[in-house]
Amino acid sequence: MTEPAGPGPLEAHLRRRREGGRKLLVPYVTGGLDERWTELLRAMVAAGADAVEVGIPFSDPVMDGPTIQEASLRALARGTTPASILADLRAVAADVDVPLVAMTYFNLVFRAGPERFAAEAVAAGIAGVILPDVPMEELGEWEPAGQAAGLETVLLASPLSSDERLALLCDRSQGFVYGVNLLGVTGERASVGGAAGVLAKRLKAITDTPVIMGFGVSDGEQARAIAAPADGVVVASAIMRRVLDGAGPEEAATFVADLRAALDRG
Hints:
The chain is globular. By secondary structure, the chain is of the alpha/beta class. The relative contact order is 0.18. It has helices spanning 9-19, 37-46, 66-77, 82-92, 106-112, 114-123, 143-149, 163-172, 195-206, 220-227, 237-244, 249-265; strands at 24-30, 52-55, 100-103, 126-130, 152-157, 177-180, 211-214, 232-235. Helix 2 (37-46) runs parallel beside helix 12, helix 3 packs across helix 11 (237-244) and helix 6 (114-123) runs parallel beside helix 7 (143-149). The protein has a domain at 22-154 and 217-265: Alpha-Beta Barrel (TIM Barrel).
């Protein structure tokens, strides 16, 4: 493994915002969900996102809950492909002033070839990649290609991991460390319990890389509570559920603005 020279653009951006006293907000949008999806992306950035996670749909996800699965199936039914998502992103890259992080599964990377996928992602304006089905021990096929292209690979940290494993994972994760609030698939929850706070504190004790918690965040008050011991939150299903139910860019922006306001209250 070749060690990066220092924080890449995604991590550097998040560090600057964190050092300014800001809790980080990373909303999610499913690429190609409908014809308005890049408008949704722009609206969420304007509403206060610090980065945006862009899902590249795959037909057999292992981590996604019912909401993200439904969004992915709708996108695939429209004929959405990784190439079409990257083309859409290239068209809006100049309008988006925060980093974009692609979330997808390794089957799609393998089919394109890691080097080609990484190069095309960077050309489309993507700064980081999350591959939830690739454990740390199996990054060998992807990591050199991602690093050579300048992509930061974000790793997921589980509440079940030992302190020793978390330390290794934090050393290897780039951009940020994605803390998993609870076991299971993604999706809104009435409560995520105390595990999120425990994991956030464990991670913050061993790394200065931004720690952003995800899974189960449903509203502003949950986001504020979960972000308190961490550096920020990822919010996905709560946004996509609104869009699947008919919300457009303005309504999505309002929800993201509410999340931003809750985080800013500290």
